[in-house]
Amino acid sequence: MKGSGVSEQSFPEKVYAIVRQIPSGKVASYGMVALLAGRLGAARAVGRAMRDVPRRLKLPCHRVTKSDGSLTEEIFAGKQRRTLEREGIKFKNSGRVDMERCEWEG
User: Fold this and answer.
1) What DSSP string runs through the chain?
2) CATH class of the domain at 11-100
3) Per-residue pLDDT tens for 17-49?
């Protein structure tokens, strides 16, 4: 609200606040995070926000996947998968996260 002295969060700040809430053992898709941040269909914008997340925030970025359960860029996918498996995330034979069992409802 303008003039109220209360600053609104930017979209990336909203994304970071949501990602911070994803519990261990659960994942959320980029699209789900966009929806929860109030921007249906803005999955790519979530991806950009995740790419630019300041390290000092120490967010569980590894818990954000594509909607089909596939992981992010191949360079990081191995590390992401190992981290998710340590948290109890189940994967299908296809190598994708079992979204039916592991998707966070937000």
Assistant:
1) -TTSSPPPPPHHHHHHHHHHHPPTT-BEEHHHHHHHTT-TT-HHHHHHHHHT--GGG---GGGEE-TTS--S-HHHHHHHHHHHHHTT--B-TTSSB-HHHHB---
2) mainly alpha
3) 999 999 999 999 999 999 999 999 999 999 999
Catalytic residues: 61
- Contact yes or no for 59/18 (Cβ under 8 A): no
Domain ranges of the chain: 11-100
pTM value? 0.88
User: Using CA atoms, how far apart are residues 88 and 72, in angstroms rounded to an integer?
Assistant: 18
User: Which of 23, 33, 97, 105 shows the shortest CA–CA distance to 60?
Assistant: 23
